[in-house]
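Justification of resources, computational component.

The compute hours requested in this renewal are based largely on the per-chain cost of generating structure records like the one below. Each record pairs the submitted sequence with a full C-alpha cell output. That output is archived, and it is also reused by downstream analysis tasks.
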Amino acid sequence: MLAVGFGVVKKFGDDGAGRLAALMTYYGFVSLFPLLLVMVTVLGYVLSGNPDLQRRILDTTFAQFPIIGDQLRANVHSVQGNGFALVLGLLGALYGGLGIANVSQHAMNRIWGVPVHERPGFVPRIVRSLGVLATIGIGILVTTAVSGFSAGASIDAGPRIAALVIVLLANFALFLWAYQLLVARRLPWRDLIAGAIVASVGWELLQALGGLYVSHVLQGASQVYGLFALVFGLFAWISLLAQVVLYAAELNAVRAGRLWPRALAPPPYTEADDRAFASYAQMQARRPGETIEVETSP
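The structure output for this chain reads:
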C-alpha cells in the first residue's frame, strides 16, 4: 500500500500535475462567480412566486463552500431586467467551464500516457468538453439536492445516512464517467473504480472537513481584508478539490500500469521506473506511424 502511494506521489510530480491543478483552479475561479450569478438570476425569474424554495436551493448551494459560503451569498446578487449582464454571465461561465474541461482532458491524457497524435483536435475536444460539463452539471444538481435533503434539521439519522450514501454513489458514478470521458482512449472500467472511490470520498471529506483548512488560512482576516480573504479562500478551496481529483486519477494509472514500487533515491531504478520513463517518452509521438523506442542502459 505504501509503495502504491509513493508511486502515485512520484507520478503526480513527473506529470507536472501540480501545474495542471493550478490551471484548473484558475478556470474554476473564473467561472464560479458568473455561474453563481446566472443561477441566482434564473432562480429569481423561475421561482419568483416561491421565495422559500428559492432560498432553500441557494442555501444548499452556498453551503457547498465551507466558511466562505456566507461571503459568497453576500456578494452574489440577482440581475433583474438586464439581459446583457445575464448573457455576459453565461459567456463567462462557459469560458471558465470549457477551460476546466479542456485542461482536465489534457491532464487525463498526460496521466494515461496518450500519445499527442491520438488526442482530439479542436472541435472534437470542445464537443467532449461540453459533454463533460453536461455530466458534471447533472451530477452537481443531484448531489446538491440530496445534500440539501440530508442537511434538514428535522430529518432523522436513518434518512440522513441514506442520503449520504446516495450522495457518495452519485459522486462515484459521476467521477467514474468523467474519468472515462476525459481520456482519448477506451479504458477498462475496472481500472477506474479505485480512483472514482477515492475522488468521491475525498470530495465529501473536503465538504465536511475542508472548512478547517480554509478557516485556518483565513484566520485573523478582518472586515477590511474580507474581499482578499474571500478570493484567497476560494483559490485554496478549488485548489484542494482539483488536487484530489488528479491524485485519484494518478492512482488509477499507477494501478493499471503497475507503476510501483518506485525508487526512493535513484539510482538504481526499479522496473516500474523504467516503465514510467518509457511511457513519458512514447507519449511525445506527434503523428501516426511515428515510433519512439526507449533503451534502458544497465
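Residues 12 and 18 are 7 Å apart (CA to CA). The mean pLDDT is 82.
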